[in-house]
Amino acid sequence: MQRALDLAGSDVDGLLLLDEVTAMTGWQTAVKSLWDDGTIREQVVVCTGSSAIDLQHGAVERLPGRRQAGADHLALPQSFAAFARAVDRDIPVSPRLTIADLRTGHGEVLMRDMRAYAPALDAALGLYLRFGGLPAAVVEAASGAREPSQEVKRVLYDSLVRELQRQGATVPAGHALLERVVRSLGSKISWSSMAREMDVPLGRGTGRPSHQTLRDYIELMAGGYFLFVAYFWRGGSHTNEQSRDKKVFLADPLLHTIALDGAPGLAFNAPALVENAVGMALLRRYEPADRLIETFILPERLHIWQTARGGEIDFVCGPRRELDVVEVKYRENPGLAAAAAAARAHPGRPIVMATKSAYRVAERYSLLPAHTLLWALG
């Protein structure tokens, strides 16, 4: 960094790009030191690197008192709304609404008008569930490919495996862990049960991993933005106390496509993938922008609601006393029982049920096709 400044001239007020900064152990300490001695007081310093986990750890340290107007920017894969526009330019730009916005008069008119785009959105969703939002994958989908190439899948898979190997996992263990997550999509899990069902050692030892080892690796993957974990809230509690129950989701559908390669017994699971996509869209919409970089492991504004009788509502979003509610029933005839139950559990709150194609606006809740809901969330 000092050499770059010397070459540019000491009185230059410019942009200093530190690429692959994570290759250096303790990079944030070096940046802090140059700030403290006045070397970079007048420069804009941008730090990028290959390891999202290392960048996140550095960002969490915050460099208190030294960041001034500094900000953390999290570059995630494209959302469904952006993907849909890339494959079909006739699809309008997403208004980036909340569930509460969708239940207003304006939101209901907009959703009714969007029914004209239902075939295009449905086709885009079918592609998105296979390609995901990685830029190279979006380019392939927009170019007319029906499946992501091995080269594109390798980009994401290698990134995941590299992070796991840095923590001592083998390549087979990494793939087994991804496969285990895919098998559990949409299901309540515990660390102990996941560990018992793993038949490949995660670390350098032998035998099944412990629940703590399994949790450490899942949270490592969430810290690298490959996964996110949503915890249950207890319906009978009046506090923000969370249950130990949780669900683990993929941060991008392409990981599901990758997991299918060479995994016996795994099949394309559209309902689980749609629930996963809705969860990810809600995470991106509701988590505070300045906290999203840290909340894939423990979201602050996205939970699953556990009823007093042991049932569940797929997603509740926002502060506990101001929750927006989402149920996902991705089938042709979803029925109204789940939406009605959500309305009873959260009277007066905005409620939407994501369906395959059913559309209905009722006094207490709305039914929307999942592709339209995902587009509206942005």
Q: Overview of this structure, please?
A:
The chain is α/β, with parallel strands linked by helices. The protein has two domains: 2-60, no CATH class; 80-377, no CATH class. Helices cover 42% and strands 14% of the residues. The protein contains 16 helices and ten strands. It has an eight-stranded mixed β-sheet, sandwiched between helices. The chain starts with a helix and ends with a helix.
Described by the principal axes of the CA atoms, the overall outline is globular
Overall mean confidence score, pLDDT: 87
Number of strands: 10
Distance between the termini: 38 Å
The low-confidence runs, each spanning 5 or more residues with pLDDT under 50, are: none
Q: Tally the helices: what do you get?
A: 16
Describe the protein's topology.
Elements lengths: L1 H7 L6 E4 L8 H10 L7 E4 L4 H9 L19 H8 L11 H4 L2 H9 L4 H14 L3 H8 L7 H17 L4 H13 L7 H7 L13 H13 L3 E8 L7 E9 L3 H7 L9 H17 L15 E5 L5 E6 L6 E6 L7 H9 L5 E5 L4 E2 L4 E4 H8 L1
